[in-house]
Amino acid sequence: MSEMSEEASPPEGIEENSSQITYTSYRDETQLGPIMALIDKELSEPYSIFTYRYFITLWPHLCFMAFHGSECVGTIVCKMGQHRSTFRGYIAMLVVIKPYRGKGIATELVTRCLQVMRDSGCDEVTLEAEVTNKGALALYGNLGFVRAKRLHRYYLNGVDAYRLKLLFPRPQDSASLQSNPQLWQGATHYPAELKEEAEEERSVSFLRELPENSVSFGDVKGLESPAEIVFHLSL
Amino acid sequence: MDRGPGLSENAATPSFSSAQQPAAEAPLPAGDQTNWVDGTVFLKAACDDLAVGELIHGENFSLFEAMSALEIMDPKMDAGMTTSGYKTVEEAIERGAAPVDLTISQIIDVMDHLLSCEATWHKGHSLAQTVFSCLYMLKLDRTTPNVLLHAYCKITRATCSLVRTAIVLSDIHEEEDFVTFGFGLPLDAEGDSKCLASLNAVEEVLARQLRGCKGLTSGKKKSTEEVEPLQDDPELEEQFCEALLCRLRFRKYLYHAYLYMDKPLGRGSEMAQKHIAKALTELNAIRASSAFLASRRSVKESLGSVTTASGQPALGFDESVNRRLLAPTPPRSIDILSWNETLKYFEQLLNDLNRICSLSSNPELEDLLQYIVDVQKSQPDLVARARLQLRLLQDGKLLGLETIADGLCRAIKMQNRPAKETETYNFLNQCGRWMLQLIRTMCTNPAWQRRKLGRFIQEWGSLLEQAEFSREASLRKAGRDGNEEKTGWTDDAVMGWAAESLSWVVTHFLMLGFELELYSPNEYCMVYWYLDHSLMTLMQYKLVKERRLHEAEFARVNDTSPESAKKKGKKKRPGTVKPIANKEIRFTPSVLLLQCHINLCKGLIWMLVALTADRKIAHRETVFNSELERFTQRFELLHKIVVPEPMTYLDYREAIRHRSQSIKELYQLSYDHFSAVQQHLQELNQVVSKATKMESVSKTQRLADIRQMEQVAARNRVVLQIAHQAGPGDNLRVTFDFSQHPCFAVAVVKKT
């Protein structure tokens, strides 16, 4: 789906600081009109009423709105659910109207959704953004999203998209950081001495200066000799 | 009906049967045992019964249905809402939108705009909105009286048909790539194979006419046969003749080139290349004619959106007549390529086709893969890539000549084919299937290619793992029997080759990520580190292979014992013959290229480590996760395979940890690697320049690579010096870009 462009352009005629922006969670159907109007105006992709209802009615707690006074100046629409073996959050639409961009409103909207998703047990969050939308890409990059894939001519206007993905910390990954070094060294096939030695020796033209049948390739990580590789694979 | 706040999962389907419709008016005429009833009243009553926020939800109405639903009458979604323009082609023609009687400059405008439409179609838009927005193309028979237009349209249609067939056959397009769906448009017409006959006839007349004009202007006497001039002004006759001729000839040569590309390699390629060269010449003539045609334009407009050489809009095009043929999706905005873009597009297409035709008849598998990578470097569009794939895999054979099994044996350098139903045999069979898929995938667009490769890596990885398991099992069994004869070096060669291939794909996969701009600056270090790991693994397998070949050669030359014949093809363990020194192994271009890539990676890794330690790279912590999660996410796929050995985040942190090294030493370390790159590049340059067996495309690309890598190494060395001289701290801001090489970044320094 689409993402608004969040170029860091100076606000036009908006003097108020961002503390005067208030954020509310979606309440009921009466707010659907303003949300739709906002999104339809800013995004290139046309969405039917069914699409809005699909998201907002099923996940009202994943829809936030930003207000300046009584004016709705930004909104975010998301969903979450089981995707293959993961529980995945998905950001469907994000819009901040032009005069209010570059004030961190979008970051705040996304942050609120990410918090709900994390607390609801999501493993990861994905979304699509146009490759040309530098502002949105920077925003998500700063929040820890990785560009997982590029989608060729994803949008109706023929522009490529990135699929962005944020992985929430998993217990098993963090555990691996504290694990006994002996253990993981045992898990790889290399003797620890070899690793040490290889790290020390970083000869540049490693191909030429090796003794006959040499073991080390001067690698940062320490790899086996050719003979051992064959052995390792065939045994 | 459920009245919960959310959607009801079990919402009762409202019944429209007349039994429950006491208030219904008389039923409408029924057919096939169906009664049609006006449901307005019922619906109205049901709506009044619902509070705000309540919905009726059918279980089968999911996101997909919601997303594909169109709101009728909404102009943003309903393609039928644009009611302006003609409704049918007949109506358009009737109202005089496509007169057949055209002036010469009008004909040229139609030809040019049609060419722009064709290029736009190749770029992924529907036929209906491009080539068949031409009313003349829709009703080609009408144009018979206008021989010039008729011949041009006919060969255009025949060419489009060839292009579409090739793309459908290659099956490398995705829906976003190319619209093969013809919407019932008259693309394949009988008798189009004879389109050349009518074109040749027209060309003949025009050529005579041109000779006539030339005779006139040079003061010679008129040719004996009078031909009717194309237009009134005799001064302009020659230029008009030329403008028409080059357009017609361009079409002819392009059509010939496509036809010859369908023929087997060898003579087919040669002839195709000849015609491509001629088409390029005509394309230049078309470009040259633009000045003359544009000078006759009365109103000067901005050149951006112009789709003809003259800059005049062409007659006889109307997009609206095909509106009803479009798929039921929101209207896709389409911009026809400009005239200049069109010329550029065809120029690139012809050059790409030329590169594809230049392929020799028997490259080794490894060189073939490199060749595809090299062809892809010029970013060929779908039409060229489809041709590439058809050329590489004709009738399921490599280049239409060699079965994949033969190709594999040649790549692995197997003297003896494995016996049927053995493990090796089955494994090789699977390798063969996988290799065919790999070649096909490598012809797709880079974005799609990388996603597909990800899946391949996993499949290939588990294949290798399985092979390793069964080998282990059979070895254990063999060990008990005291029979070790089961694993000869042939088996090792097979596994070695498979592991080398997988490492190659992983390397390619990681490098493609740079081209697709998937990595952000805070990931560069880990990606170069993993890439380096993968390159090192690849290098090792390559060297093992080279060594084995060398040893086999050595043994063949030195072994004069009578048993030698018996031994051949059997057991040959490393160490049974005199070991070969690394320096004796010949340094192939691919080995040297790897060496350069490895040094570039290492140079960049240590440069990034040093600059980060020196606080010259901005570093930002993220709230929701850390580098660990990004590492996991980036390399999760590669953690599921056996080769290259999976590397964890901890391995990464350990590897880039600088124990006692000072920042200066880190800078020096990086500097040394870049110096090494420059040294290896010289060697590579020599080897490539001298190489005789290399594909010409690869040779050209390699020489270009060398220049790019030289730039990367040289510029980064300068930045390292500047950073070092600036002293410690964040007094400089260093960023990276890919202006010199698609995969290897150059550092850019700014004062803070």
TrEMBL record, chain A:
GO terms for molecular function: acyltransferase activity. GO terms for cellular component: cytoplasm. Residues 21-169 form the N-acetyltransferase domain. Coiled coil: none annotated. Signal peptide: none annotated. Keywords: Acyltransferase, Transferase. Pfam families: Acetyltransf_1. Residues 1-20 are annotated as: Disordered. The keyword Transferase applies. InterPro entries: Acyl_CoA_acyltransferase, GNAT_dom, NAA30-like. PANTHER family: N-ALPHA-ACETYLTRANSFERASE 30. Belongs to the acetyltransferase family. MAK3 subfamily. This is N-acetyltransferase domain-containing protein.
Automatic annotation (TrEMBL), chain B:
Residues 1-31 are annotated as: Disordered. Residues 11-30 have a biased composition (Low complexity). The keyword Cytoplasm applies. Keywords: Cytoplasm. Pfam families: Mak10, TPR_NAA35. Belongs to the MAK10 family. This is N-alpha-acetyltransferase 35, NatC auxiliary subunit. It comes from Riccia sorocarpa.
